[in-house]
Amino acid sequence: MKDRLACVVIASDSHVRTIVEAAVRHLDLETKGIASLGELAAIVRDVPLGGILLELATSIRSTPEEKEVTNELTCVYPFARFRIVDHEIRILGEGNTLETFVERCRQFNPRVLRREGRISRHLSVYLSREPGFEEAEKAVTINMSKGGCLVFSSRKWSIGDLVWLRFPGEEIAISGTVRFWRAWGQKGIPGIGVQFNAEAPLA
């Protein structure tokens, strides 16, 4: 995969994987095929990914736990669901094509994702650009770890922004740095990935 982007193709049917991987490689994007969402978490720890393609039928048959992991990853990587109709690869969503998905992958900086004991936690939190919380956004966490959290937010952010978080009823605020941002209106959950500037307990 040297000097080329990597896209994971997820489909339980090996024939479907072969068709889609061949089409993606024809567009000069390297691929790695896997049979289930359960294999994805291990892949993202070792392979710098540029995108994820998930077959609709495989997605429907996945467990709730596997879907929870996928929801998180779609906030980080370019992501699309697909199905094959009459030997044609159809990317779900109006106006979406395999070519446009590959172009999104090309604009993305491939990365590995180190998940460190991340747990699903939907907690109310005040999210602020400054420590005084004068114009704080009422937000909610999607998941948390000792090193950071994913926070739902509809505001505009930039990678590297300094942020402050405070949970209702708590006096102490936690500072962090934005490592990921997905704007409202894009595919997936809008929000930011925050790396805590000091280790925080799991709430």
In short:
The chain has five helices and twelve strands.
Description:
- The chain folds into 2 domains: about 5-105, Response regulator (Rossmann fold, 3-Layer(aba) Sandwich), CATH 3.40.50; about 120-195, Thrombin, subunit H.
- It is built from 5 helices and 12 strands.
- It has helices at about 15-25, 40-45, 55-60, 65-75, 100-105; strands at about 5-10, 30-35, 50-55, 80-85, 90, 120, 125-130, 135-145, 150, 160-165, 175-180, 190-195.
- Strand 11 and strand 12 (about 190-195) form a beta hairpin.
- The chain is elongated, with a radius of gyration of 18 Å.
- The termini are far apart.
List the helices and strands and how they pair.
Elements: E1 6-10, H1 14-26, E2 30-34, H2 40-46, E3 51-55, H3 56-60, H4 64-73, E4 79-85, E5 88-91, H5 98-106, E6 119-120, E7 124-128, E8 137-144, E9 148-152, E10 162-166, E11 174-182, E12 191-196
